[in-house]
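Here is a complete protein record:
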Amino acid sequence: MIDALIAGKLIRDPALKTGPSGKPYCNFLLSVFTGDEKPTFVSGISFGETAERIAKLAKGDSLAVVGSLKPSEWADKSTGEIRHGLNITAQAALSPYDVKRRKPATETPAKPQSDPRAERHAQYAVTGDGFDDPMDF
């Protein structure tokens, strides 16, 4: 197995189920852009709290998961052709809904921080080190 970070969009609504032990698990399917013409589809499963969080999402939502990735193959039921795919067992997940907007603790405007690059540029401009010569291209 390979440890991986996979980010994509949910192709269908995640399905939350309960196992024989009473613990929740969730099956999901991601469409992942890899730079090819066609996206790669990654089937996933998660357990416990991660499963409950993923189950709150819907088709089309963005999702990033971290977990163990393994290749899989199966025979297509209609053609009998051998197909290949990827499965991930997600230990952690992050969606746009998990990111909380930060608000300043006080209403006073934040003090702008100085840019060290601007200070260096000003230093060279004052000393005249010859870096402002025109360049012919």
Q: What stands out?
A: The chain has two helices and six strands.
